[in-house]
Amino acid sequence: MKKILIMLIVLCFVATSAMAYNKTPGKGKTINPARATWSTGFFQEALVRKAFEELGYKVKAPKDLANPIFYKSVTLGDVDYWVNGWFPIHNAQMPKNFHDKAGIYGYVVKAGGMQGYLASKKYIEKYNITSLADFKRPEVKKAFDTNGDGKADLVACPPGWGCEKTIGIHMKEYGLENDINLIKATYSASMAGALAKHKNGEPVLFYTWTPNWTVFKFLPGEDVLWINVPEIKPHEGQKGKEKFMVVKDAVGTVTNPVKLGFVVSDIRAVANKKFIAENPAIEKFLEVFTLPLKDISEQNTKMNAGEKSKKDIKRHVADWIKANQAKFDGWLEEARKAAK
Q1: How would you classify the pairing of strands 30-31 and 58-59?
Q2: 13 has a pLDDT exceeding 50
Q3: Which range (12-21, 169-178, 304-313, 331-340) has the least confidence?
Q4: pLDDT band at 247 (very low <50, low <70, confident <90, very high)
Q5: Best CA proximity match to 151, nearest among 160, 159, 162, 142
Q6: Judging by beta carbons within 10 Å of its beta carbon (0-12, 13-18, 19+), is residue 88 exposed, middle or buried?
Q7: What's the DSSP call for residue 61?
Q8: Which of 21, 65, 152, 257 could in theory staple to 248 by disulfide, Cβ–Cβ 3.0 to 4.6 A?
Q9: Directed axis angle between helix 42-54 and helix 280-288, to 10°?
Q10: What domains appear along the chain, each with residue ranges and CATH number?
Q11: What is the DSSP string of 247-291?
């Protein structure tokens, strides 16, 4: 009798432990994700979609939406979420009732949407470069001058890009028009040329943004460093966002904090509030889910090399999960425990 009682206690304990939380809280539910139109955000969307499938949800193919359309759609409940929110840059693209109907959750990458200027670490240290102002110095200009015109060469943005305007303003505001030559040819080709120069031990100076393949091929902190603008001078469109133009504790900066001269954004998840209230497992997952910028940039590098099909991205996700299984499983467990 005593043995039977012990066995019953053990069985009850095992059953209770197994039922402590539902392994598939999304079973029987279908969700509708959205995805930004820029390919550098495809990987994180696919990774989150895979996680939600592991939680039992049926996840439809994501709708590719322009920013303003997404924020209106998620407010209306036409789509449930995306993980491609950039803040504060996207604030101006939200409808007036956004915060009544939708919310912002977690940090896919804190300060993941960086923009600015980088230069070769070796030459930064050699010439004690801290900001663009140092490119007024004759010895610095000479070192970074490729074509012999007496100016340092900077890989900038092609005509028509939003960053082209800001870079042009910087050259004028900081008095650098006679010191820096802006290379405005096709960006990918220009950066390929810069990479070749770097491999030959020559100095490079370029503008880039993150996530991007460039910061995987040129690793901040090892190959290059983010440098300062001489001072923060916000142009129209940046005013009121000055505090977001200075970043603390970023990887690979010449100073800490660093004045980038561009608005830096946190990459975050956005979801419909009613959807979140009905799916606490998803809310918890979005709160704990975070990725190293280097991992996104590595995947973006593969896409830039031609691995950009749905099959390729699915494989990238599977490879990342295999290499980070404990982390991925931990996110899922947190989500399962949060489910009602």
Answers
A1: parallel
A2: no
A3: 12-21
A4: very high
A5: 142
A6: middle
A7: P
A8: 257
A9: 140
A10: 28-111+266-338 (3.40.190.10), 115-263 (3.40.190.100)
A11: ESS-TTBSSSSEE-SS--EEEEEEEEHHHHHH-HHHHHHHHH---
